[in-house]
Amino acid sequence: MPSTLTLNSRGEYAVMAMIELARSGSKHPLPLADIAANAGISLSYLEQLIAGMRRHKLVKSYRGPGGGYILGKHPDEIMIADILTAAEDSTPARRAKTNEDKPKCAHTNALWLHMGEIIGSALHKITLEDVLHNRL
Question: How many whole angstroms separate alpha carbon 44 and alpha carbon 22?
Fold first, then answer.
């Protein structure tokens, strides 16, 4: 069973950045500044996200003049769940969860865990290519 994924703005911005890379194709690396401008993401925030994408081999980087980023795989091989996982891995520091963070009601806690599993399972079946071509 796929692990539960976190749906937040970090994941949304990561998917937006990956869409920009998919739209540009793999012919020429796209500079971070262009990705940030096209996706409406701050450059410093994008740098954090791209670091996670690189660690998960979802993007490749090229240095020097004409350098930038391309997708590490074809868009139909990149699952949205993989992007969300990489986005969470790019978090500079995480706060440890405490018992106070958990809902007080065991019934709703079970519901949210189950909903997270359903969403996670679905996101393991949707590719970047699907999102790029609006095949949802």
Answer: 21
User: What is the reported pLDDT for 114?
Assistant: 86
By three-state DSSP, how is residue 70 classified? strand
**Would the pLDDT of 95 be above 50?**
no
Domains of the chain: 9-132 (1.10.10.10)
Positive or negative: CA dihedral 77, 136, 6, 49: positive
More confident residue, 123 or 95: 123
Report the alpha-carbon angle 72-77-80, nearest 5: 95
* CA 122 – CA 5 distance, rounded (Å): 11
Torsion angle defined by CA atoms of residues 41, 44, 49 and 52, in that order, rounded to the nearest 10 degrees: 170
CB proximity list for 123: less than 8 A, separation 6 or greater? 2, 5, 79, 80, 81, 84
Cα distances from 83 to residues 12, 25, 124, in angstroms, run 9, 17, 10
pTM of the model: 0.82
The confidence score (pLDDT) of residue 17 equals: 96
